[in-house]
Specification:
By secondary structure, the protein is of the alpha+beta class. It has one domain. About 20% of the residues lie in helices and about 35% in strands. It contains two helices and six strands, in the order ββααββββ. The longest helix is centred in the middle third of the chain and has 11 residues. The chain is globular, with a radius of gyration of 15 Å.
Length: about 90
Amino acid sequence: MNFMDECDHFPEVAENKSLTITLPVKRLKQARRGALLMDRIEQASKSGHYLKVYAWGEIIARTGNKKGYELKVVALDNIVLKVVKKNPAGRK
């Protein structure tokens, strides 16, 4: 699973300001909280929903041909996934 977002606090990457969080499915399946996180990911993949990711870790520059940054999450306890229902256009 890859989660990507803009990383506007790092201007040195100019046109490519991506921040990536990588969570291997194998790691999720082996973890104590993995089933809960997978369930949230599945819920958010339904039409009209999206996933908010709150995570704590070390931000490092990506190497090689990949530009941008990656957030290294040491423990799955350092990540929270929240399923959010999208608002229809024009509704608050």
